[in-house]
Each structure stands twice: as C-alpha cells, then as structure tokens.
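Work Package 4 report. The design task specified in the project plan requires that, given a folded chain encoded as structure tokens, an amino acid be chosen for each position. We show below one input record used in the internal validation round.
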C-alpha cells in the first residue's frame, strides 16, 4: 500500500509554535513492561500532566506479552514514576487523574488476536474518553519486533491513512533506536515502515534532539549574528565532539554486545550533534527545511573506507578499574557479555566534511563508557592569531580561542580567550566567558522525552530523524564497522576510569592536537 503525502501545516513553523497543547489522543506503547517505559516514557508523561501540557482525555494503552490487569499495571507505573520522575515527590492528585487514562492490553506481538482486542479497546477508549480517534503508536520493544508490529498494525486496520488534519483523525508512530544495525537493515526497516505508514507519520526518535542544550545549538547559531561569520574553515581550526559516560553497560550486556559504541552513540546521537553543528542555515525553521540541511552534512562527510579505519579511527574496550573511588569490573566481566568479546566500548574518529564551509577542517569525535566522568561537549577550536606579538612559554600560556558548548551535565556555553594577568609584567593566561543555563534561567530543563512526546502529538517532526538522514548516517558508519571486523583488536585496552586507550592520545598528537581536558 502506498499513501499519498499530506501537505505540511505552515503553522508548524518553530517561531509560531507558542500554544503547545496537542489535540486529544491515545498513546499505545508496545513493550510497556520494559525499561524504557518505566524509566523514561511514563515519568515524561506524568511530568507533562503535571505541567498541564497533556490534552483532555489523554489515554495510554500499554501493550505487552505478560498477563496483567489495568489496576496492577497502574500500580507498577506509579512505582516507576515515583522512582524515576525528575520532579519529586509525586503529586498524588495529578497521578490519580493521569492514571484514570492508563490501560493495559495483553498480547503477543505476532498474534492478530491481540491486535483485534487492542482495536476494540482503542475504539472504546475513543468513545468514552473523547480522544477523537487520534493514535500514537510507540515501539519500545527490542528492535527485532519492529517489522512484525508494524505489519500487524497495518493488517489489523489500526492505522489511519493520513498523518492528520484539522478534521480527520491521525495515526503516527514513534520508533526507538537502534533503527537498523547497518545500512542495508536500516533501508529494509524503512521499506517495511513505509508500507504501512507515510513518512509524515513516522517519528524516528533520537533523544539527544530533545535535550534543551542540543536545540539551543540552532538558536545559538541562527538567532545570533556574531558567531555565524566565523563558523567556517577560515576561522575554525578543528572541532571536537565528546560524549563521555562514566556508566558501564548497566545490565544491558545483551544489547550492547550487538551494538558497541559506534551503533549505540556515534551513528545516532553524535552524528546528530555533528550535523547541527555543521549545517548551513535552513531557509525556514520548518521541520523539513532543517532536516534538509542536516542531511546535506551527513552526505558531505568524506567516507572512511574499511581499509582506512587504522588511519581515521581508534577503538577500545574497558578493563577493570576505579571510578569515583569504586572498583568496577571490566566489560568482559559484565553480565551477558562474552569473555572474549571484541565489542568496542570506546571509539574516536576523525572525519572531514567536504563542503565549502568545512573543507580541510577535521572533526574529531570520541565517545566511551566507563570514562572518568559524564560529559557531552562540542568544542569549536579557533585558529591562532596570524602574528603572535607575545612570547609563549616563560610564564605565558597562550592558547587558541575555544568555544565550548556543554550539552550536559553542566549545561552552558563558554568562550576561552587569553587575558593579561594583572601586574607589571605582560603575562597572559586563558580565562573564560561563561554562560550557565541554571544560573540564567533557574528552571530545571524538562526531560528530552517530555519534549519529544509532546512534539509528536503536535505533529512537529523537527526533532525527529527523517528516512534519508538515518540512511545517510548508516552509509557513513557501515564501512567503518566492516573495516573493524577485518582485524582482531587487542582488548581490553583501557582501564575503567581513564580517558580511553593510549592510542587515542597518539591519534591526536600525530595531528599536533590534543583532546580537551574535561
Ligand atoms: C542511549 C544509549 O541512547 O543513550 C545508552 O543506548 C546511553 O547506552 C544513553 O547511556 C546516554 O544518554 P544520556 O541522555 O544519558 O546522555
């Protein structure tokens, strides 16, 4: 079945999106008994309820394989929200009214009978709670079930043929990562999804895009006149993007063994950060205009061929070590991890974006688990002055200007520059102009899932990944994975609690650069 495209609503322009209460709808969560639902989705929905951002009659139907009635399900979700909500304590009155719209439907993912029962339940909820037939499906199951669920939804006639208009009910689908495990599987999944849904109805989620500081990248770059003129190869020496985590695999060894950091973080979260950093100004703030520019960046990344991985990448795996004073096991000792696993938990890449703006400017990306701290940062390192009047060394510490965009946890932006140390001598030291979100705005930022769930209900796909984007990302990543497969790494090669393998320091040194100390 192919569906005809729906015209974009011009009022979706970011600048006009001030009233943000979505129309009534039902959210159907597949795999509701899993971790994602209890740690992220339900807490996000409860916080939306608390902020009065959910529509009246908002309904959630959890669909999963285990037998369960509505009441015990509500009780479990209550416990999960009490534990994981970003706001505490739980406001029982808000929870009570939210929980009245919470239902459970038992069913196997491949059993048509389950979907028939789901349909009845949805129709009943729609009649009784006035959700207008609007349906938002959320795939929070392991990815192996995605194709089956999608085709069952289509076969059961649960999907309305359009993504929504003022008068007719809409159906949309949110698909969690990982979206495929390489280019071919991502293309195949896209093909399966698009047999049942139109692209306008598909919301591929990358929770990094829901982070306030990530969205601020667009504002920082395109609502301020002073940075854009220097945001290019004439002024920028190189860019470093770091996603460091101190956590290990947290009981997800099974999944992580099939992913590694390249699929878990780099293919999605980091390439999103990269494309927002490197994109051209879009012609409007509308979803597709922004995504058009992001996809151009991904397509302009110079491919790293399998035989070039030694030159452009470093990979690592942590062994036992100490983090924050505590001994932690090595990756190979984690549950569900093979004792001789060659899955990488650290990777660094150097890439080039072959465009007029970025020709010749290296972008260094690194991410790893069990690094000394959790920090995500984008650093734009500028070129030095053309002629240095002051002697470096001998009490002078002259470093190039760096603009550091701290995505988390100390959300803020800092510009480093050289300043004269007060006193009779001409001594220079780097100092920083610092902007901190917390100090400037006070309020704690909402969780990424709050923003993304709300956007999807509003039909705003700006912060979701389009089909061509996800494929372009895999197009770049897949040959690297192939290149790595061709040789046996010597793992483990870094101790938990250190900044990755030695080799990654040399990787920078050979370019005359060094990783930022974070
Ligand atoms: C997830 C990964 O997508 O992102 C996890 O699967 C990782 O392995 C997490 O820990 C990091 O997210 P955040 O928001 O804590 O930076």
């Amino acid at each position: 079945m192919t569906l005809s495209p729906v015209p974009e609503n011009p009022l979706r322009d970011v600048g006009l999106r001030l009233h943000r209460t979505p129309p009534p709808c039902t959210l159907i969560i597949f795999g509701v008994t899993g971790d994602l639902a209890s740690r992220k989705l339900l807490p996000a929905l409860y916080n939306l309820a608390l902020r009065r951002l959910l529509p009246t009659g908002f309904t959630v139907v959890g669909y999963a394989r285990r037998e369960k009635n509505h009441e015990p399900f509500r009780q479990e979700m209550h416990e999960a929200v009490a534990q994981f909500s970003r706001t505490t304590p739980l406001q029982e009155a808000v929870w009570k009214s939210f929980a009245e719209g919470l239902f459970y439907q038992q069913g196997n993912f491949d059993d048509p009978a389950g979907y028939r029962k789901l349909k009845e339940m949805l129709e009943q909820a729609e009649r009784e709670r006035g959700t207008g037939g609007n349906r938002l499906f959320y795939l929070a199951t392991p990815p192996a079930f995605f194709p089956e669920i999608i085709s069952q939804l289509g076969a059961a006639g649960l999907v309305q043929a359009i993504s929504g208009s003022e008068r007719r009910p809409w159906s949309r689908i949110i698909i969690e990562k990982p979206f495929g495990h390489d280019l071919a599987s991502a293309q195949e999944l896209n093909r399966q999804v698009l047999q049942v849904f139109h692209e306008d109805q598909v919301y591929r989620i990358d929770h990094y895009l829901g982070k306030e500081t990530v969205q601020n990248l667009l504002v920082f770059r395109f609502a301020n006149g002073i940075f854009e003129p220097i945001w290019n190869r004439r002024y920028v020496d190189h860019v470093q993007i770091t996603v460091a985590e101190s956590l290990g695999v947290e009981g997800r060894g099974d999944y992580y063994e099939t992913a590694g950091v390249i699929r878990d973080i780099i293919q999605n979260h980091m390439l999103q950060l990269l494309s927002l950093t490197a994109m051209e100004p879009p012609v409007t703030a509308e979803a597709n205009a922004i995504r058009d520019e992001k996809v151009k960046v991904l397509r302009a990344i110079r491919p790293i061929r399998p035989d070039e991985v030694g030159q452009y990448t470093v990979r690592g795996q942590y062994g036992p070590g100490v983090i924050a004073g505590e001994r932690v096991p090595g990756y190979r000792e984690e549950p569900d991890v093979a004792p001789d696993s060659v899955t990488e938990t650290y990777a660094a890449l150097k890439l080039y974006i072959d465009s007029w703006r970025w020709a010749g400017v290296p972008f260094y990306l690194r991410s790893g688990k069990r690094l000394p701290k959790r920090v995500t940062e984008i650093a734009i390192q500028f070129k030095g002055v053309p002629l240095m009047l002051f002697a470096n060394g001998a009490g002078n510490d002259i470093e190039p200007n760096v603009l550091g965009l701290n995505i988390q946890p100390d959300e803020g932006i800092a510009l480093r520059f050289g300043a004269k140390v007060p006193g009779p001598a001409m001594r220079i030291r780097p100092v920083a102009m610092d902007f901190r979100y917390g100090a400037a705005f006070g309020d704690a930022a909402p969780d990424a899932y709050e923003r993304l769930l709300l956007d999807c209900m509003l039909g705003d796909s700006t912060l979701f990944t389009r089909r061509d984007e996800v494929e372009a990302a895999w197009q770049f990543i897949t040959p690297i994975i192939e290149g790595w497969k061709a040789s046996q790494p010597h793992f483990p090669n870094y101790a938990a609690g250190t900044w990755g393998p030695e080799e990654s320091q040399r990787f920078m040194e050979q370019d005359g650069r060094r990783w930022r100390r974070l």
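The pocket of 6-O-phosphono-beta-D-glucopyranose is lined by residues 245, 264 (CB under 6 Å). Validation will be extended to a larger panel in the next phase.
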